[in-house]
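seq:
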Amino acid sequence: MPDQHKKVKTTEKATDTKPQGDYTDLKRLLALLNVQSSKQQLPALNVESANNSITKSEQYSNNPCGERCRGHWQESTEAVELERFSMNYKNERNFSTHPQHALFQDIFTALVKNRLICREWVNRTTSIHFLRVLICVRLLMRDPCYQEALHNLGAIDSLAQYMETVANDYLGFGEEQHCIDKLVNMTYIFQKLSAVKEQRERVTASGAHKTLINLLGARENNVLLGALLALTSLAESPECRRKISELNVVENLLVILHEYDLLCKRLTAELLRLLCVESQVKEQVRMYEGIPILLSLLHSDHLKLLWSVVWILVQVCEDPDTSVEIRIWGGIKQLLHILQGERNLFSDRSSIGSLSSANASGRIQQLHMSEDLSPQEIQENTFSLQAACCAAITELVLNDTNAHQVVQENGVYTIAKLILPNKQRNVAKPNLLQYYAFRALRFLFSMERNRHLFKRLFPTDLFEHFIDIGHYVRDIHAYEELVLKLNALLEDEVKQITENIENINQNKAPTKYIGNYAILDHLGSGAFGSVYKVRKHSGQNLLAMKEINLHNPAFGKDKKDRDSSVKNIVSELTIIKEQLYHPNVVRYYKTFLENDRLYVVMELIEGAPLGEHFHSLKEKQQHFTEDRIWNIFIQLCLALRYLHKEKRIVHRDLTPNNIMLGDKDRVTITDFGLAKQKQENSKLTSIVGTILYSW
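struct:
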């Protein structure tokens, strides 16, 4: 053995010092490959060599045979030449531009026809020798010109059959290293084939996609990654995607998303994003309880993983039940948190192709961790992620309760900030995020109870165009003119819109405190005072507070008269507060005096007065439909019957401005400041109300 090792060293030295342009080694390999399989000298392999990995030997470029030759196995001349070929050309990628391109083509043809296609040779050769052939084919396959050649030689079906056999052995009988290396090389070959659109259907026709799906249950990371990379390339084509989705693929993908490392999760999320175009895949995601798994991934800081997961949510939340489930699991809050842009996110520059090559050569982790993006690239990817979040919210707000939560979580403010022009953006589609943000806002505006939030946002002409787009228009290009109009505004006009957006921020510092309540916004004014949006100092719910100035002459000319009026009002409101529980009647919570002002805390009604709806329809030359009129009328009758018959309360100031119309035309009677409760068998004789509505 020492003499043999010395001989090998001498051969290496001679090889290293041969003159450039001498390709006798290639010709020798070609001659060996052209030997008929029946006459071929097969390598003798002892038992100890079975666990050695030929792939790992690629790390030792200066010693093709190395210490493994000493006492492990004696190889045939073909085996030595195959390994020498793989070591000499492991960094070559463009074989078609090499001076000896014709010789490489002949070697590739011989490898495929005489080794991969020949069933007799495959059955007789050792596992390690077959692996050497796969490695050489894989190296040549890095050049695109050889990918079509593999199909022309009729080897795709043969490779698919070999991969199925090796995969069954690997999954059924153990993870021997030579099985792992063969599967990694074969998944690489199928990924390269699938990267070409014209080749994908040939791959699925061979049945390779079925074996790749089975390999999603592999415990070895490199085998799993190889399968994910190949399937992701296949899923780019609709026909192949349908064939993959017909098989039981989602359950394994969800397991990987839940349990495996970041790189596996990232590739799995991208594959699932492509597959979710198919309805059966979306159904399986829900059936296998995938929503909480997907939402848990929104806590990740990896941009590409987040982007894929959010687009999965966009697709699955088209189902109404899934949309509700996303809200229940906290998905809306998480999406809005991403939109706020306060997290430190990271990503990498790796692609499917580069990851596949790195996986085959055993350096995928190094590649994945070393390809960090620049700050500008991170920003561009963040804008794309935020656009995806806007798309998800757009779909979610089709549900009324979801839309209400978006508003309650300050979502209108968060999304509105994204429409503002940003001259620092330097991306291929600089207005893409603005398009998606405007669409999300327009969907929210389509619900009537949210419209009051938008009236103060835009100047008149921009607001008119915003309205004219129409309700629930998904086509993103419909928002192009709106974005162009906004970006064309003068700096002062943009500054005013920015201030308007800040004014609807529910988390801004309170303008002042009254009692135990923080004043957040001024909602409007009436004859007797103003109405504010408030939040209790120790609470989360938003409320309405009416401030009544007691120095108003309507309450009396002197202090005695005013005190008497206040006493009566407080008494009546206390009665109403304690007794009124009806879905169409506003709820009162508290009444208190402070600094000669009376404050009434009540339920905050999301919507607009019925009078405003009348005026809005009149401006558009439209009318309430008969069904809408009956719906509103019946609710009013039920509320008044409850007040008059059951509680003996007379409102005494029922006008269109005191009837709030919320989403889905829900009626709420408000402003009980002049209400009276009749005693039994008594009559009310005072004249009150708005004269305009008394005729």
